Structures are given as structure tokens and as C-alpha cells.
Amino acid sequence: MPYLYFDTWYLVLVVPAVILSLLASASVKSTYAKYAAVPSARGMTGGELASEILRRAGIYDVTVERVSGQLTDHYSPKENIIRLSDGVYGSSSVAALGIAAHEAGHVLQYYGNYAPIRIRNTILPVVNFGSGLSVPIILLGFVFGSRLLVDIGIVLFFFVVLFQLVTLPVEFNASSRGIQQLESCGALSSEELPLAKKVLRAAAMTYVASVAVSLAQFLRLILISNGRRR
User: Fold this and answer.
1) Is 79 considered catalytic here?
2) pLDDT exceeds 70 at position 3
3) Which residue out of 48, 52, 103, 171 is catalytically annotated?
């Protein structure tokens, strides 16, 4: 029986987590599509809202740009740019404003020295290195019977899991900050605000599902490694 892919632990641990991830992805897409069709009463666009949040916070060195694609919105701290997708930047829908506020929330985290986002950035170089090499190193360890290589690979994969765990409070906090900004600047009415929250909650579940997949993989690798040492 193969030890790394079509094994019992893969079926028991990883497959359910992958199914959860697929369901979360489908949920965020359907929720976004639903509320992207609901225009906000005030008519402020996502691009305008993000700029307004930055202005109100006294942040003038971060620009807001349009980026192609759907749900490709992100904040690049290295470039000091908020990039909003086609369906968010120029849209005044409830979904667009929720997402724009979330991305602006990330900027507020950086400028407020929010600890989890600093921790995430600190371990990012190790994550970038380990995400692509951890499993090959573990495979080589199994092939050559090297416990050291297996342990190194598992440690590298641990940093990937840690990164995703730290990402959870970062994303939830960015949504919380975004909702606060939506309330304070009056971009959404009291009836519209709960709809934006639904979009952000659905998006947050994709991060929860990603953590579940990584944790399942991590536990699986440990169990396989322990089994090979017996």
C-alpha cells in the first residue's frame, strides 16, 4: 500500500478536509454572486470606499488600483497597493463594498502594527521555501530510509501550517475592521450591513477550510512517519 497518497490516513484525514474546502469555495462564490447583484443605496463604489477608509485613517501613501479577474482582491504591503477586482473596484454592490472594506482593513492592520500580521510576515520566507520542498524532502527520506530528511520535511511543513493558523486571526480581524469602517463612514445602511457580513463570513470559511486541509496533511505525515519507524 502506498504510504503517501492512496493510504488509509489520506482517506480518513485529508479527503474530508478537501471536501470541506471545496464546499467553502463553492459557498463564497455563490454568496458573492448573490450579493454582487444587490446595489447599495448610497452608491459608493468599492474603489471609492477603500480610498475613503484610507483617507479617514490618515493613510495617504497607499494607492487603490483595479486588477483583472474575479475575487482576486488583495493588499500588497511591499508595493503599498490595494488591488480590487473588476467586480469590486467599480461596483457599488453590497458584496463589493464588503470586500473593499476587508482589503482596507489589512492596510489598517499594517499601519496599526497588528501583531499576527507581523508574525505571519516573519515566517513567510520559511513558508515560501518549505511549501514546495517539504513533501519532496519527506519522499526522499522515505526512499532512502533517512529519518533526518523526513523530520526536516515535516518541520518545513509545520511552518506552512503555522502560517495558515496565523492567517485566520488576520483575516477575521481585517473583516472586523472593515465592518467597523462601513458603519462609521455610512457606506451601507443598517439593512445592508448584515448582507456584507455574510459575504465576509463565507470568505473567511475558505481560510478555515485551508487550515483544516493543512492540519490533516500534517497529521497524516506524522502518522506515516511514525508508522515507518516501527
Assistant:
1) no
2) no
3) 103
C-alpha cell at 170: 488576520
71-75 long-range contacts, CB within 8 A, separation 24+: 71/28, 71/29, 71/32, 71/99, 73/99, 73/100, 73/102, 73/103, 74/103, 75/103, 75/104, 75/106, 75/107, 75/110
Reported pTM: 0.89
Residue 28: domain span = 8-229
Domain count, the chain: 1
Give the span between the Cα atoms of 82 and 225, in whole angstroms: 42
Asked whether residue 107 is assigned to any structural domain, the reply reads yes
Please, what sign has the CA dihedral across residues 53, 207, 95, 79? positive
**pLDDT confidence band for 230 (50 / 70 / 90):** low
Instruction: Report if residue 1 sits inside a domain.
Output: no
The dihedral over CA atoms of 195, 32, 175, 187, expressed in degrees to the nearest 10, equals -50
Going by C-alpha positions, the residue among 58, 52, 53, 110 that lies closest to residue 80 is: 110
Separation CA 182–CA 214 (nearest Å): 33
